[in-house]
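FORM 7B: Structural annotation worksheet

SECTION A. Query
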Amino acid sequence: MRLVILVLCVLVLFSCAGAYDPLDPTGNITIKWDVMSWTADGYVATVTMYNFQMFRHIVYPGWTLGWTWAKKEVIWSAVGSQTTEQGDCSKFKGNIPHCCKKTPIVVDLLPGVPYNQQFTNCCKGGVVSAWGQDPSQAISSFQLSVGQAGTSNKTVKLPKNFTLLAPGPGYTCGPAKIVPSTSFLTPDKRRKTQALMTWNVTCTYSQFLARKNPSCCVSLSSFYNDTITPCPSCACGCQNRKNCVKSESKIVSMVGIHTPKKDNEPLLQCTHHMCPIRVHWHVKQNYKDYWRVKIAITNFNYRMNYSLWALAIQHPNLNNVTQVFSFDYKPLVPYESINDTGMFFGMKYFNDLLMEAGPSGNVQSEVLLQKNMDTFTFKQGWAFPHKVYFNGDECMLPPPDTYPFLPNSAPPSILTFPPFIFSMLFFLAIWFIES
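SECTION B. Predicted structure
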């Protein structure tokens, strides 16, 4: 019995740890349902998705939201979204619902749909920015007219078993919980209204659930050592090595190679690490009061353009960033007393699009950092990052014992001695010979 309890405790701790990110401890996706009005057989609700994660985007082909109705509800109409299946609506005569499935699956509409199908913060193909990069674009919403449901806050039954793909697996959603009704300001900000009923669903991300292997890796180099530390072999798993593309000339004849799949399955350039993304950190120069780092991100995936990308890095000297040359930079302070984490992302219309594998499949920048002489050192790998995240997934770093190391300090040359010491040594040598 004790063994069973111990195993259960370990499983609980492991599952909690998987959904907890020390660099983004409060990050989650919150889905809010606001009942705006009652209808003859149900209600009209505004559903809003808030991506409160600091550096994890929802990338193309976007989010997919599902749930199970508590009773026999149907969706009469949807604005700003659509269900992937209508289901069996044969029992309805005349007015046919938009969806009759017990477990509807909803997706965002694509840009450019007619105006009468649009809703506030909709129609972005399911792409949602990270809160830390652009809060105004970290929201997605749509409207549902629900029938065969309760017509008051005492008879409405909350949906259950929420699922979120964004776009692949990795998110676990909790149960819907009734919260205080949301308040709204009119456009002239002179009147406040509120929803008739509100409930929230919170979804958290676990990289362990998303995939068995990392999706990115890190390589290292420095000006003081000719050795380049590559990504570890098979850093992202080598099970797909047979299907990788060995030559760029081969991709010309492959139909549909550039089309992203809903499960986000990559088609990779053949490498020893087999990762879709490689981040390279190069310690470039050393000055009296500053030092310079070059960061390069390379995309090895022929199926993915990263129209939104973010790089989060933990390094003790990021509290003294002086200048970032061709990326945007924002410090992240998950803990008020520690400022060692920063987020890098592309400048709009310049390098915010990380192209698919090929000649244009990379972006790079340099970072100038001021030295704190009490802590700065090149010894023992201090100049290299502690953690690296690309689009919210932690990248695999090389083993510490393979980092570029400082050359062994050589004994001082006699020519570097001060002149008076050299003269003294010369006269001592003459005296020794004559004696």
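SECTION C. Observations
Residues 1-18, 409-423 have pLDDT under 50 and may be disordered. The two ends are 90 Å apart (CA to CA).

SECTION D. Sign-off
Analyst initials: ____
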